[in-house]
Amino acid sequence: MAREKISGVDTAWLRMEHPTNLMMIVGVMMFDGALNLKKVRRIIEARFLAYRRFRQRAVQDSSGAWWEDDTDFDIDSHVHRIALPGKADKAELEALVSDLASTPLDFTKPLWQFHLVDNYAGGGSALILRIHHCYADGIALIQVMLSMTHTDARGSLAMPAADIETTSSGGETEFWEQILKPVTGALENAGQIGKGLLEQGRAIAANPQMATDAMQEASRKGVDFIGEVAKLALMGRDSPTRFKGPLTARKRCAWADPLPLEEVKIVGRALGCSINDVLLAMAAGALRDYLEEHGDPVEGVEIRALVPVNLRPPGQGHSLGNHFGLVFLDLPLGMDHPLERLYEVRRRMRALKGSYQPAIALGLLTAVGHGPRILQEQVVQLLGQNASAVMTNVPGPQHPLYFAGGRIAEQNFWVPQSGGIGMGVSILSYNGRIQFGVITDEGLVPDPNEIVARFAGEFDKLMWLTLMSAWGEDEVAPKSEAKPARASRPKKAKADKAPAVAEVAESAPAAAKVPKRFRNL
């Protein structure tokens, strides 16, 4: 039987599967009306299965991990129909998504399933996708799902079979040559460094001294790998909170009401922050408020989030596989003032720009994927014990889409967590709105709705502060610089001061451009 070697990083994701943390990406689309199962199956067969990879199983033996054609492939094993009971709405769909997120996929078959959900929100439908992370990352899966949709209802029913030849972005060495390039200098050297690290991956697993030699060579060529690796190796644990602890095998999923993307952009422009800064600060505020509500101390509390960073070379968005690294972001939950917290998040995100953390994290996963399982388990444990959450932001299309004749009203997804991490926060923009999804271990956070319900309030605080500054308030945040961080923060980076009203008002929206829900209040 013909088979294909699974890449090192995809092997690592395959082997991360654990009863308390399944390596599934879970997504749901909600539709205005009811979908027809036959039409859904036809689109899946024509477009989704155009990727040969989705007809293949992931198998492991003494020689490694392999993609192997499923000679008994049956689409009925992968496309299921479920009807919600009674007058089902958001709560019932969340319960179903939570059950599916807690249920392992069948490893004797290709690791994906679609679930068409009937009787949702007064006769509408929902479509749930579960797929193992070893097949693709979020950026690739967005492209896969886009290939199954159309910009009008009729077009979404007449989609021909796709002609998709590639299932990956080529060899690992070629990939490293393209993505391991420093943001600041040494552009030509870094590709060769990455290639050398990849070629030495198996040897490094057996001889750690080789890793030191490789890092020293990288430093000689102008790439500060040694400093970055030292930061990761010496990184202490984040604050102990109820977000960390023994995990169960039960997951709970929830999502917030969507926020208008344009309003988030307005706040970001007015305050001199990126959309991502605003969203991460909102998440920090929501988590802080949750801890306070449960009577937990928040002074000085920081939780560390693993934030995926896309390392795909341009033009390879349609290829499957995992091509992202990770950065470690400490969220300042201990900061009370929303703007002080926002500017500290911005400062920390800026400090991470140009960092080699993403490439190093990807390199580690690639190397351990080629090495013995015990080495991978140690690396995953190291990453997991020093963080409390995974947080990811995936941009989606900003126009309405149709699937199998139905208009997609909302979309959400939830990321898997590895090791001992028990919480994931997912942010997805679609059709001019931003959606927050949260997945938690039931033993740590029994009801994640208590977290997602706080996102809108955190945004309203930032919007009000923006409007106050635009209309002449003295200042929208404390004048003092952000409080000194603990040792995990970069020492050389200076904290940003919150801007005075004159600085903010210059770029703040005029009253005529203020979102309608904030006018005349």
Task: Name the features.
521 residues; alpha+beta; Chloramphenicol Acetyltransferase; 2 domains; 7-stranded mixed β-sheet; 6-stranded mixed β-sheet; 18 helices; 16 strands; glycerol metabolism; acyltransferase; lipid metabolism
Beta-strand residue fraction: 15-25%
Query: What about the largest sheet?
Result: 7 strands, mixed
**Structurally, how many domains make up the residues?**
2
Spatial separation of the terminal alpha carbons: 69 Å
Number of helices: 18
Q: What is the 3D shape?
A: globular
Which blocks of ≥5 consecutive residues have pLDDT under 50? 169-212, 471-514
CATH homologous superfamily (4th level) name of the largest domain: Nonribosomal peptide synthetase, condensation domain
As a percent range, the share of helical residues equals 25-40%
> What is the average of the pLDDT values?
81
Broad structural category: alpha+beta
Gyration radius over CA: 23 Å
**CATH class assignment of the largest domain:** Alpha Beta
Catalytic activity: an acyl-CoA + a 1,2-diacyl-sn-glycerol = a triacyl-sn-glycerol + CoA
InterPro entries: Acyl_transf_WS/DGAT, CAT-like_dom_sf, O-acyltransferase_WSD1-like, O-acyltransferase_WSD1_C, O-acyltransferase_WSD1_N
Pathway: Lipid metabolism; Glycerolipid metabolism; triacylglycerol biosynthesis
Protein name: diacylglycerol O-acyltransferase
